[in-house]
Specification:
sequence-specific DNA binding, Jelly Rolls, Putative virulence regulon transcriptional activator, VirF-like, Homeodomain-like_sf, five-stranded antiparallel beta sheet, 48% helix, 13 helices
């Protein structure tokens, strides 16, 4: 099938943009040797046809045959040899994944992995279907950056739906940047939400589970912690002379500037005007 409007695609910034993550075809003839450039990120090798011998480090060697996949860690010395003519697909992992997926991969890290010698996994039918679609897009020249991102998201969804966590724990054991620590998720996203319920929803867990995990990591309830961060943000904006008190009141859900003043007196022991004046004096001194 021919790709329509090829010149339009090629003129797009996202089409021409060079980037480290995404999919690419990889083929080896029998006895041919190669190496994967994994300096920028870890990658997943999907063997679709034939058999490949994958050497990791100085001693570890894995034979990966058709319809199996293996992870090659970032900056891990590697060497590939075609046992038979092989057709493969490489996914150089884009680490900018959703909060939901980060939480999922964080949960995987706590699973006891299935004991295997090679850490390969089968390419199951739903995944094989998605990989064949990627090959088709590559062959037709649909090289848009968004295609790569969307297809990786689809593959993550397939892994979550059709592979057990203990399988994936072993498979991704050598990967860096899969998820983020729970603390990082909280610190990177707390400004996006206003309630504990919204925070739990953002992390794709129940409010009860979120409260329990938060208490474990931060030694206080998420509500208390969020109130403290809210006070810090309000103080920060009050000290900015470019922001009107009315705007601050609206942003943080106060019914009026007078309501903001009452909050400040209770929280900081003084009015917003006095806080701003104190901040100005400190900056001048």
């Amino acid at each position: 099938m021919r790709l329509f409007y090829l010149s339009e695609h090629r003129s797009c910034f996202n089409y021409q943009l060079r980037y480290e993550s995404g999919f690419s075809r990889y083929e080896l003839t029998a006895h041919e040797e190669g190496r994967i450039d994994n300096d920028g990120c870890f990658c997943v090798l999907f063997v679709l046809k034939g058999e490949v011998q994958v050497g990791l480090g100085r001693e570890h060697t894995i034979s990966v045959h058709a319809n199996r996949m293996v992870l090659i860690p970032q900056r891990e010395e590697n060497r590939l040899t075609g046992i038979t003519p092989a057709e493969c697909l490489l996914l150089f992992w884009n680490k900018e994944i959703t909060v939901c997926d980060k939480m999922y991969f964080d949960s995987i890290s706590h699973e006891k992995p299935i004991a295997t010698n090679d850490h390969t996994l089968p390419i199951r039918k739903p995944l094989l279907h998605a990989l064949r679609q990627v090959l088709f897009y590559l062959e037709t020249g649909l090289l848009c950056r968004h295609m790569h991102i969307l297809k990786q998201q689809e593959i993550i969804l397939i892994l979550r739906g059709f592979y057990a966590k203990n399988e994936l724990a072993g498979f991704f054991a050598g990967a860096s940047g899969m998820g983020s620590k729970f603390e990082d998720l909280i610190l990177n996203n707390y400004r996006k939400v206003k309630t504990v319920k919204e925070f739990a929803s953002l992390c794709c867990v129940s409010e009860r589970s979120f409260n329990r995990k938060f208490q474990h990591y931060f030694n206080q309830s998420p509500y208390q912690w969020m109130q403290e961060r809210k006070a810090e943000l309000i103080h920060e904006k009050i000290c900015d002379p470019e922001i009107a008190f009315r705007e601050i009141a609206m942003e943080f859900g106060f019914s009026s500037s007078a309501h903001l003043t009452c909050y400040c007196k209770k929280q900081f022991g003084t009015t917003p005007t006095h806080l701003r004046e104190e901040s100005h004096i400190k900056k001048q001194s």
